[in-house]
Specification:
The chain has a single domain, classed as 2-Layer Sandwich (Mago nashi protein), CATH 3.30.1560. With 144 residues, the chain is an alpha+beta fold. The protein is globular. The protein has a seven-stranded mixed sheet, covered by helices on one side. A hairpin with a 5-residue loop joins strand 1 and strand 2. Helix content is 30%, strand content 28%.
Length: 144
Amino acid sequence: MKNRLLLSLPVLFFFLWSCKSYTPENWPEKRLIFGSGGGFTGAVTEFVLLENGQLFTHVGVETPFRELTRIGRRTTKDLFSKAAQMKELDASVNEPGNIYYFISEWQSGAERRITWGAQDKPVSENVKDFYQQLSKVTTQEPGK
């Protein structure tokens, strides 16, 4: 019995550590930020995805971030992995149009970012597909 307890303690500690929750005041170094802005109002809608699956959003500059439904571990890991492999984020493309979209990856205090939307400056289908995948998690039902 004592051996079982000793063997289960590391699992319990890992579980408790992986459930750590963050707030906008203490976000971890590694996060994905994506969204869109512009148009008539110029408002920006921004989403922040953390490695533990927490998802936050806010619209405009003066509204506070609010937490949305937590994203599943497998989906979150897949999105972070795809972001790490995206060479387009290294290009630092900044070609917004009237309506623009952006994806950035923060890690260790450094940002990799792409902003697009200008009609005469198209981006790759790879970037558009990844943005669609990110956008899809913002509309998931709880538990999916």
